[in-house]
Amino acid sequence: MFIIISLSAYSQQGLTLEQALSIAETNSPNMKRTKLALVRSQENLNAQTAALKSNFSFSVNPLEYSQDRTFNDLISKWNSTKTTQSYGLFTVSQPVIWTDARISLENRFGYTDSYSEFSGSTTKGFSNNLSLSIDQPLFTYNRSKLALKELQLALENSRLDYAIQLLALEKNVAQAFYYVYQQQQSLEIARQAYDNMQKSYQVIRNKVDAGISAREEMFQAELNLSTTKSDFENKQVSLENAKDDFKLLVGISLYDDIIVLPNIAVDTVKVDIGFAIDQGLANRMELRQRAISVENSQFDLIQTKAINEFKGNLGLSIGLFGDNQKFGDVYSSPTDNEAVSVSLTIPVWDWGEKKSRIKAAQASIESEKISLQDEQNNIVIEIRKVYRNLINLRNQIGIARQSVTNAQLTYDLNLEKYKNGDLTGMDLNIYQNQLSEKQLSYTNALISYKLELLNLKIQTLYDFEKHEPVSPVTEVKK
Fold first, then answer.
1. Which residue in 56, 159, 168, 317 has the fewest CB atoms around it within 10 Å?
2. Has residue 96 got a pLDDT over 50?
3. If you ran DSSP here, which 8-state letter would residue 75 be given?
4. Is the pTM of this model over 0.85?
């Protein structure tokens, strides 16, 4: 059995915590979804930025024919017309983000062949209309700037979310990683107990065969051996289940056989609680996300105030029109076209709709500010809890280490008594279980301390083991 276990371990893939985190960042389903959300926000901002640049368009109507008979009020007669035309329209449109205006340059060139029954004549020729126009909103907020700012904040929020998810992934992977290690250690402790029980079983069997001990001791030894064997097999099942869950979380093939290789050496880490809280309040990305929510609520208020608002629009246009039967003489006698327009929208009565919506938006802003303050308080409380847990766990590690030493010495002494016939197999099994329990408790204490240190790093974005701040990754790996 030991040969089979050794060969199986030899074929396993060793995996450190750093390697598992690197694999999870690329393969974890949750991180893939977060990356796609980040890509979506980035592309939306790219599209909005591109929309603020000059837009060039060209449309062509190769052939358009119409034949109509309509009543002409001017001459009080029915009139038939036949028109054949083709034209093209070239447009350059430029948004002006500083004032939310739009400047457009248009050129429409075409050919027209039109017959009118009333005049009994046909008009043929080329025409070209070149115009420059400006459309400027008045007395309202800058919609272009607001849309751009909203997308910029959305991208920043997605980057923060990606970094937060990455830290959460590090915590989840570490917990799953150390849980697999716990199961590995439990299996190893169960194997040692099984090995020890086989040896003690052989001792009592030899004594019973020699007539030194009663046969009842043999029955108890067989029961103890069966119990430890069953526990060993149960630990094997628990380990394989833990591996499957870990591989699913990290994104490793379920058919790969792995073994985790942790570093659970624990050094005393000095933590200044005041410094830790300051780091958390200064660096936690959740606070920036809350601030972004406040800004978005203020944007909503700006948009709400624009409901039924007094606003206007200024339109300016200058152009040059020419037509002629000959293509080269289109502008032989051009005509200037100018237009100026000012329009105003004046609200009269809305039955209090705007006032109520503004109050609702203001309430949302206050709610977001309260959430921001609540987030700050939660950060302080969580850091304090982690700090207290670290002190408690450090004491537990010392106690657990001494308990393992005492349990090992106790087991060795009672094993000698058992060999000498001064102790029953049932009593020896109790000491063996105590040793296994203390060994597992020591392992759990070390793992809990490592996880709590990681939790402190996540809560403060400061690595107290390396004495350096943590720079959250906000860019997606290619």
1. 56
2. yes
3. T
4. no
